[in-house]
């Protein structure tokens, strides 16, 4: 019985967070937003909900809020109609770090939503949340109401009629995780020359991708929003020298199989170029040592063609853990002989990689990830200089097939400049 219930709960579509940076990008979408704004202001006037006219700044904030709400409601209807948008109306949430808040976020959000959800307006279907003092809490959820749905249909609005504000904060700093289930809260920081430079890099990359000719022919149960191209750079453990990977972009949510044969750049089929053994090689560069010329994941007596992935996961665990692990990482035990112990495996890895063994259990993995991200960002910027559209996926780039050799050279140059050693790039 419980197994069946678990399956049902697993299949329930997850609500997604309100995106306050959604904007209209075409005349039809802008006209829809103007229509809703006009209706809301007439409603306010008719019921006498406002005693005096809004100040210019307040009116601008009001219009920005309604615009983002309308556009995100349109987006959820077109991209995932089975899901809902969850949004916090808590004053405590509204008062959080302004760096990561859109201009549209304001204390008037609950009142505006209530107005849009009124029976007379019918632009929003609103289900208020509840606090979790004596049980599980639930955030407020919203869906497009009947009047908004009719306008979406009449105007024949599509996902291509929407965009996002590329001037939103793209340099994210996360604090260290306090526990296994802790995702690491976003924290504020003081801008300096480094963060300003990182943000300028991301703006240039996002502007380039916003205008890129990307096409996806994938047709299945999911809807691929090819306008979802904005990238953010997320740093870990409260440090701008840890993490820094690029997140976002519709292509990152696609599997390798989905991208192959379905994703096109400038009308060309794509290939994926991957840095081979980047983690171990960067670790050797940090230790000032020469990396091995053969496969870094080939551990005598333990490595086979079938369990290379498990060996790689163990290797990464040794680099990312803040203390020396004592057991096999989750999902790796079956990759080794039943008689093998983690202690003997770890000792063998340390023996093979003696020059970097002192880094195991130090958490250096996030520093390695930072260097990977520096390499990728530099490669992306160099691709832009060469007029090439490249899409990042962690430590790899998706590029037009005919540009593969040129991009491979760019990636190798970026690796050498950041690490001081030669890297390896392979066709995935």
Q: Could you characterize the architecture of this molecule?
A:
The chain is α+β, with helices and mostly antiparallel strands. It folds into two domains: 1-165, no CATH class; 166-296 and 353-428, no CATH class. Helices cover 40% and strands 14% of the residues. The chain has 13 helices and 15 strands. The strands form four sheets. Strands 8, 11, 12, 13, 14 and 15 form a six-stranded antiparallel sheet that branches. The chain has a four-stranded mixed sheet with strand order 1-3-5-4.
Instruction: Note poorly predicted spans.
Output: 1-12
Distance between the termini: 43 Å
Helix content: 25-40%
Give the strand content.
5-15%
Number of domains: 2
Largest beta-sheet characterization: 6 strands, antiparallel
Q: Which class best fits the helix and strand makeup?
A: alpha+beta
Tell me the number of helical segments per DSSP (H or I, 4 or more residues long).
13
- What's the total count of β strands? 15
Following the backbone from N to C, one meets helices and strands in this order, namely: HEEHHEHHEEHEEHEEEHEEHHHHEEHE
**How would you describe the shape?**
elongated
Radius of gyration: 25 Å
Mean pLDDT across every amino acid position = 89
């Amino acid at each position: 019985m419980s197994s069946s219930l678990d399956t049902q709960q697993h299949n329930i579509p997850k609500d997604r967070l309100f995106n306050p940076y959604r904007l209209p990008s075409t005349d039809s979408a802008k006209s829809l937003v103007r229509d809703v704004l006009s209706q809301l202001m007439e409603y306010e006037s008719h019921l006498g909900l406002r005693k005096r006219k809004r100040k210019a700044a307040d009116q601008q904030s009001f219009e920005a809020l309604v615009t983002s709400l309308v556009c995100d409601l349109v987006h959820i209807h077109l991209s995932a109609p089975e899901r809902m948008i969850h949004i916090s109306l808590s004053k405590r949430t509204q008062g959080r770090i302004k760096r990561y808040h859109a201009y549209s976020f304001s204390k008037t959000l609950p009142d505006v939503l209530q107005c849009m959800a009124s029976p007379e307006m019918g632009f929003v279907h609103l289900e208020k949340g509840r606090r979790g003092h004596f049980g599980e809490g639930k955030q407020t959820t919203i869906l497009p109401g009947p009047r908004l749905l009719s306008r979406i249909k009449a105007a024949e609005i599509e996902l291509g009629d929407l965009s996002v504000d590329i001037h939103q904060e793209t340099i994210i700093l996360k604090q260290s995780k306090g526990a296994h289930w802790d995702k690491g809260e976003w924290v504020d920081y003081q801008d300096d020359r480094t963060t300003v430079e990182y943000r300028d890099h991301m703006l240039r990359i996002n502007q380039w991708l916003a205008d890129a000719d990307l096409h996806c022919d994938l047709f299945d149960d999911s809807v691929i929003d090819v306008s979802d191209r904005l990238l953010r750079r997320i740093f870990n453990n409260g440090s701008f020298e840890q993490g820094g990977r690029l997140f976002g972009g519709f292509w990152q949510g696609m599997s390798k199989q989905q991208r192959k044969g379905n994703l096109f750049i400038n009308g060309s089929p794509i290939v994926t170029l991957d840095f081979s053994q980047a983690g171990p090689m960067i670790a050797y560069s940090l230790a000032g040592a020469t990396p091995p010329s053969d496969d870094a994941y080939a551990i005598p007596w333990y490595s086979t063609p079938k369990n290379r992935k498990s060996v790689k996961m163990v290797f990464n665990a040794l680099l990312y853990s803040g203390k020396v692990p004592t057991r096999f990482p989750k999902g790796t035990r079956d990759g080794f002989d039943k008689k093998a112990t983690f202690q003997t495996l770890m000792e063998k890895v340390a023996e093979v990689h003696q020059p970097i063994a002192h880094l195991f259990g130090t958490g250096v993995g996030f520093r390695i990830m930072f260097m990977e991200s520096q390499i990728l960002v530099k490669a992306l910027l160099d691709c832009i200089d060469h007029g090439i559209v490249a899409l990042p996926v962690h430590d790899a780039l998706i590029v037009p097939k005919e540009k593969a050799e040129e991009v491979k050279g760019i990636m190798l140059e970026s690796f050498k400049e950041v690490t001081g050693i030669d890297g390896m790039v392979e066709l995935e």
